[in-house]
Amino acid sequence: MAPKDNHPPTTEMQALDAAHHIHPFSDTAQMRAKGARVITQADGCWLTDSEGKRILDGMAGLWCVNIGYGRHELAEVAARQMQQLPFYNTFFMTTHPPAVALSAKLAQIAPGDKNRVFYAGSGSEANDTNIRLVRHYWALMGKPNKRTIIARKNGYHGSTMGAASLGGMAGMHAQGGMPIPDIVHIDQPHWWAEGGDHSPEEFGRIRAAQLDQMIDQLGQDNVGAFIAEPVQGAGGVIVPPETYWPEISRICRERDILLIADEVICGFGRTGNWFGSQTYDIDPDIMTIAKGLSSGYQPIGGSIIRESVAQVIEDGGEFNHGYTYSSHPVAAAVALENIRILEEEGIVDRVRDHTGPYLKKKWSSLADHPMVGEARMVGMMGALELTPDAPARAAFANEGTVGLMTRDRCFANGLVMRHVGDKMIISPPLTIADSEIDTLVELAWKSLDEGMATAKAEGAFTA
Ligand SMILES: *Cc1c(COP(=O)(O)O)cnc(C)c1O
């Protein structure tokens, strides 16, 4: 065990952090008032903060620590690779053993004829690559006007200019002049919030039909691709109605546009199969991967590409694109070891056959809580819709307030559960034990009780 106090006192770290560190997606004023939480170590599904408090990580970091914390095998592989070859690039017709082995492995586990990989350092970079790939592909096919990419409102594809433009987060677009040109958005298949009086099945078809309509509006000769997450993660674990993906797949095929499945969260076991595309029977041309690819132990992302699409790129001369850390040897070696563990320990099968169903059963019991309108779960990613009036599927007047209050109670009770507006979401390590699932759901119920009490006391419990 590492020493528990091999760090400066918490207040000292908080002061230095406040003085010198700009945090992603954080309100600096709020954070400074409270002091940033300092996490110092982790094991299994449990984090430890600088005060020695243990917290159950219901989010697997940021949806990524699929095999759990503290797997020494990954540390050993990283150390060995750093000593043997800490860095070399794969530009200019060069390769190295970890890049070779990981690519072959990904080609093997990816469904069907998706057997080429282009590497990035993150999911955002991989989606930027996808924009380049799609446009270059169509140019090589003699259809340079097929530039526009259709994406979805409230989708999340990352934080670079390209990826955030593909994403449909209004708050992100408002800062920095996005989306960039030739990216447009259609509505999401979020039945609970937007389905009105339609049945989920009807609503799935209606939202899928928007893709057809958008292609008509833009002209098929101007549209290159559609990108979506099989299940939207950061948008609040939006589970599409069953009718949605079959329609989307059909439209992409019939209208001759590429389909990109952003598997950054759904990939590597999260939905009970290796890829969300398998869970939803989607056959994408490109899959974006990151997060669970290395269980977050190293930063790495990539695009897995259908052979026929890749061949066009390969036959087109030099692809003028690449990152210094594309197929970084240490990251690739760690990802390969992570996949070995997922495979040899049967973790993906176990999510499908046992842990996922168990978590879903327990999670569903939270729908009995008076503040919960819906408790949904696919594999091991789930959400609760908080509402002041469940039968009416009503939203809170001041969106996000009750969610934040409940989130704060979760932290106080030793559980990391995120809020997206008034949705509470979880995505725990795939290796979580049944007893830990029981604890997670108990802490969630307690936090819901306390969040509701706070909301009522502060007059926030209104539609
Ligand atoms: C997190 C995420 C990304 C971005 O990945 P980064 O590694 O943060 O750049 C892209 N797509 C989806 C679906 C994600 O959840």
From TrEMBL:
Keyword terms, alphabetized: Aminotransferase, Pyridoxal phosphate, Transferase
One Gene Ontology MF term: pyridoxal phosphate binding
Claim: Transferase is one of the keywords in the record: yes
CDD domains attached to this UniProt entry: OAT_like
Family membership: Belongs to the class-III pyridoxal-phosphate-dependent aminotransferase family.
Pfam family, one: Aminotran_3
Entry protein name: Aspartate aminotransferase family protein
